[in-house]
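Researcher: We plan to redesign the surface later, but first we want a full-length starting point. Tokens attached.
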């Protein structure tokens, strides 16, 4: 099958080619093959529009304009035979300029001239049938092919081993540039070269997508692997939850029912990837102001045996899903092959599918915008009124005081902060002699006088400090990518579990496995202070907004707050407060609270730090800390990462759990507001928010961006407003 613009090509009576014009609904029949047509492809250019058809005995190139004119004149249309007796052809593909045709016949690839019968190159190397081949558009004479190579070995039992390879050719010299190792245990069926991102996308019969980089410095490394079954289940679950919240659960239930709810005792079928094609996604939303029009990313179609999917190449997630079973007028439930038009015409895409059970072909007209809108109506934001935002609204203290501060104020009265001493009433006494009040004399108290005895070195030092603080941040400079130096903090090899810069960038705190916390200056040349007292490795450190305090959490299930200028802890919370190890401790809400994780919940603590010394009660802690509330994370055994903004007022707290999910809490509402399942293939070990900078200003929308990372799964950039 093949589609291009408003033309569909498919075989009729096995050896006759039919070109159907969907605009005029008139077919054009082309005869020239004696055996069954096994491969079809349209050319890359529109004028003239070429079609290549291949069978066992010949390969023919047809010029549709000339063939249409011949039929109108009453003559039999004829094509150009460019190859004969090449074998069973499974795939044909035109070059970007329509001058060559790549023909995949058996285990060999023939590069033929599109104008006459001439074999330009023969590419050997595959051990079994070549299933797909694509020309590289930005690099001349480069061809990529996928195949299924199988070997059989006789032992005590019958062993069938399937090896599937990816090859890169330079067909001008017939040189093999690159050959991959074993990719998957299933045959590779489809292939696409993404010109924008310079990547190879290939799909196998087991429902997995593999993406490789074609950038010269990347050495064809694997970018990612996508399991379509898992992504489809995640998409359906997200639709069902969002539809349930908005009252559209029935529509989402119909979409997910056929895919996720198999009857008990039924056999799970595979999900072969029959087609990978570029999707003209953004063109269908060019008149709408929504989240998609602002993204500069690529989308592509995935054609499977049960339906069509749209994949976002930036997030590797499903944007829309169309199942053949959902349409009662369509009698084809399982497709053997499919074809799609690359460009949308009037916002609609033509899809051609054939049945796997009978000789039947169906033409679908898919309204791309309507499909996405129907499935995303529950969780596509139409505006900013219902979306989350990191920056608190102007009436922030009203909501927070209703939930928390009202109870906290009663506790704050217990702390006796800034209480004024009152003078008790005494009896009035009259004396016979009254001393002068001294109002007529000049005051003898020495007032403040500036210190003018500064040395020249001290004056120059102060000037340089002031200059450094007032120096503008170089916004147009490149990011730091050069390795400068390596510094050893301890005499023995000791792991560093956490590091944290202060907000002004003048100090760096390090938590070490030897139970200590180190504070270094910004140029890492001197250790300002060393804090010791934990009985376990320090796994978290956090600076206060005023840079005067440091909070640390340890594996010994304790939390300590240190003054930068004093080695003694100002606050200690012991093991009796927490049942599990304390992790990810930080100040929150402009140093009003402390956030920390313990097990599957995080704690919101209110505190007061008192550094006054009392020799009689020197062992009694003067600082006080009270628990405000605990927030458990749903269906997670342990919180693996936590992040919140302390540099400005924000209600949002982000947590990641051992269940690979990310949960968003709104502390103004006092509950969880959103859950993103399967954020990474493994548990997230760090969440990084845009917490602002004291050196530069940013747009308010930029603070809604955050990143997550997991071991072996790269870094993902998210938008809190769309949770994507």
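Model: Full-length starting sequence:
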């Amino acid at each position: 099958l093949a589609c291009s613009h408003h033309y569909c090509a498919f075989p009729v009576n096995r050896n006759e080619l039919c070109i159907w014009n969907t605009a005029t609904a008139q077919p054009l029949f082309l005869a020239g093959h004696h055996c069954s047509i096994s491969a079809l492809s349209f050319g890359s250019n529109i004028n003239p529009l070429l079609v290549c058809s291949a069978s066992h005995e010949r390969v023919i190139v047809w010029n549709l304009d000339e063939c249409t004119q011949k039929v109108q004149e009453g003559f039999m249309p004829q094509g150009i035979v460019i190859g004969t007796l090449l074998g069973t052809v499974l795939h044909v593909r035109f070059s970007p300029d329509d001058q060559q045709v790549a023909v995949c016949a058996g285990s060999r690839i023939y590069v033929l001239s599109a104008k006459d019968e001439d074999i330009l190159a023969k590419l050997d190397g595959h051990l079994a049938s070549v299933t797909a081949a694509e020309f590289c558009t930005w690099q001349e004479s480069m061809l990529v092919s996928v195949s299924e190579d199988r070997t059989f070995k006789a032992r005590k039992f019958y062993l069938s081993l399937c090896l599937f390879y990816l090859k890169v050719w330079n067909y001008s010299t017939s040189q093999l540039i690159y050959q991959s190792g074993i990719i998957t245990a299933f045959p590779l069926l489809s292939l696409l070269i993404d010109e924008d991102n310079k990547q190879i996308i290939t799909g196998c019969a087991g429902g997995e997508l593999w993406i490789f980089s074609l950038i010269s410095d990347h050495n064809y490394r694997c970018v990612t692997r996508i399991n379509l079954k898992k992504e489809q289940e995640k998409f359906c679950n997200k639709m069902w939850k969002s539809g349930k919240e908005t009252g559209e659960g029935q529509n989402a239930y119909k979409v997910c029912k056929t895919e996720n709810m198999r009857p008990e005792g039924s056999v799970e079928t595979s999900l072969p990837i029959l087609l990978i094609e570029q999707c003209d996604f953004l063109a269908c939303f060019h008149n709408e102001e929504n989240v998609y029009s602002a993204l500069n990313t690529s989308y592509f179609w995935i054609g499977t045996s049960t339906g069509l999917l749209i994949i976002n190449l930036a997030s590797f997630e499903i944007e829309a899903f169309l199942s053949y079973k959902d349409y009662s007028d369509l009698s084809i439930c399982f497709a053997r092959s499919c074809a799609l038009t690359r460009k949308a015409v009037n916002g609609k895409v033509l899809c051609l599918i054939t049945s796997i059970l009978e000789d039947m072909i169906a033409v679908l007209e898919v309204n791309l915008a309507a499909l996405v809108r129907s499935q995303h109506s529950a969780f596509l934001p139409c505006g900013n009124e219902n979306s989350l935002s990191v920056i608190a609204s102007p009436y922030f203290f009203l909501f927070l005081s209703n939930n928390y501060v009202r109870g906290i104020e009663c506790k704050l009265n217990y702390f006796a902060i800034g209480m004024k001493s009152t003078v008790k009433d005494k009896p009035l006494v009259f004396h016979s002699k009254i001393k002068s009040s001294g109002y007529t004399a000049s005051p003898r108290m020495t007032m403040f006088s500036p210190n003018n005895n500064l040395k020249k070195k001290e004056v120059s030092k102060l000037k340089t400090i002031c200059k450094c603080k007032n120096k503008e941040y170089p916004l147009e400079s490149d990011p730091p990518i050069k390795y400068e130096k390596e510094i050893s903090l301890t005499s023995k090899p000791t792991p560093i579990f956490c590091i944290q810069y202060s907000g002004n960038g003048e100090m760096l705190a390090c938590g070490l496995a030897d139970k200590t916390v180190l504070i270094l200056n910004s140029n890492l040349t001197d250790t300002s202070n060393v804090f010791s007292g934990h009985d376990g490795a320090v796994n978290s450190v956090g600076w206060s907004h005023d840079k005067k305090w440091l909070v640390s959490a340890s594996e010994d299930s304790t939390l300590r707050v240190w003054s930068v200028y004093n080695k003694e802890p100002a606050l200690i919370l012991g093991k009796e407060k927490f049942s599990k190890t304390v992790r990810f401790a930080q100040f929150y809400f402009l140093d009003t609270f402390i956030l920390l994780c313990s097990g599957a919940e995080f704690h919101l603590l209110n505190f007061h730090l008192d550094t006054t010394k009392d020799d009689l009660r020197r062992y009694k802690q003067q600082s006080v800390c009270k628990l405000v509330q605990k927030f458990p994370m749903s269906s997670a055994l342990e919180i693996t990462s936590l992040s919140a903004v302390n540099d400005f007022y924000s209600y949002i707290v982000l947590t990641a759990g051992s269940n690979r999910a990310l949960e968003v809490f709104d502390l103004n509402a006092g509950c969880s507001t959103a859950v993103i399942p399967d954020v990474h293939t493994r548990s997230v070990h760090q969440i990084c928010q845009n917490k602002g900078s004291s050196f530069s200003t940013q747009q308010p929308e930029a603070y809604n961006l955050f990143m997550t990372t997991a071991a072996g799964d790269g870094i993902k950039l998210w938008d809190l407003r769309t949770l994507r």
